[in-house]
Every structure is written in C-alpha cells, then in structure tokens.
Amino acid sequence: MTILHKIPKKPLGAAFAVALGVAVPASFAAAPTPVSAAAGDLDRAVEALRGISTLTADFTQTDRNGATIPGKLYLKRPGKIRFEYDKSANMLVVSNGKSLYLVDYEVKQVQRWPIGNSPLGALLDPSRDVKTYGKLVPSDHPDVVSVEVRDKKHPEYGVITLIFVRDAKAPGGLELTNWVALDAQNNRTTVRLKNQNYGAQVSDSKFRFTDPRRTGGRR
User: Fold this and answer.
1) I need a surface site. Which of 41, 81, 124, 143 has the fewest CB within 10 A?
2) Among 1-5, 141-145, 166-170, 207-211, where is mean pLDDT lowest?
3) How many domains does the chain have?
4) 200 Cβ partners below 8 Å, 6+ apart?
5) 163-174: per-residue pLDDT in tens?
6) CB proximity list for 124: less than 8 A, separation 6 or greater
7) Residue numbers of the domain that contains 118
C-alpha cells in the first residue's frame, strides 16, 4: 500500500490544478484495442454520466510528483461536487452547482472558478456535452472504456480522460473508476475512486463551506 502524505503547499492556482484532475489499472496491461472496435461506447459513457444522480466514493489523488492524499468524494448532479480531503491537507474543493471553489484553510484563502472552466466541467457542467467534446481513446482491455474530453476552442479549460469499467450494476452499465486531468500548463493529476455508491441521499449542505477568511475555521 502506498504511504499517503500531504501534498506540498503551492500557490492557489497550482493547488487547484493539482486538486482537479487515470491510468488504466495495471492488471489490464495488453495491446491497445482500436477505438473502432468499441462502437457505441461513447454513447454508453454519456448515458453512464447522465445516469448518475448522486455518487459517493473514497478517492485517492496523485499529483505529477507522485504525492498522494486520500479523501471522500460527494457528487450530486447537476453541478455539485465535494472533495473532502484528509485533514492533513487542510484544504477543500467544492462546487455549489455554479462555481468551483478551492478553500485553503492553512493560509485562509478561497479561490473561485465557473464550473465549466476546468477539466471537471465534463462531470459537472450540464451544458458541456461530453459527446460533442469527447472521443474514445484506445483501451488496454475490452472491459475498459476511456473517453477524452476537451474543448478545442478553450484549451485553457484543460483536458480530462474519464476511465470506465463495464459493470452492469452501474448507471449505463459503466462504472466511473478514475480519471486523469491535465490543466493548461500540462500539470497532470490522477484521481482513483473506490467504494462507489450511487443514488444515496446527499444533503445540499455538503456543497457549502465555512469561509476561513471570515471565521478561520474549517467545515
């Protein structure tokens, strides 16, 4: 098991890139399957994303330097997400459906972005049509579906590659297991999910936060 440790502190913009961002599991190491052999999988991936009303999961996040930290993910469509990091990170990433916030409790700063202006827009932004901006990329295993999403008109939004594994119990028959995100500076972040739970009640209070600039506290 990888030893988990705190991601080194960076300026807020860089920390946000680290926070938003997978490689296909090593057990699926095989010759790539041509995209043409997976006809219909892009539609299935879109259906899988649209089929998620709520999602909770444990996650680990790894930055380009290999620093890894765990946490709990809460997602509620449309547009809401919360990355609740291990307390050692002393930060939070949360979206209220309109804006995405990076809350840094150590330096008592908050930074905000429109939800569409990041790689995570593919997951969160109802107006971001994954079928329009996405394409299948070669898969290392017939049970793995990889979709790369980018807006060529807005390279500053970055790129996200969503990795699904076929699972009849998941929405659309595909389970979102991980993703890799590249920001405009080509910083890579990997997020891996496990213990996914779909359709559970998630309170809207999960997508609010205590502003440390006013209180100095954490929620």
Assistant:
1) 143
2) 1-5
3) 1
4) 54, 56
5) 999 999 999 899
6) 77, 78, 79, 80, 81, 95, 100, 115, 116
7) 12-201
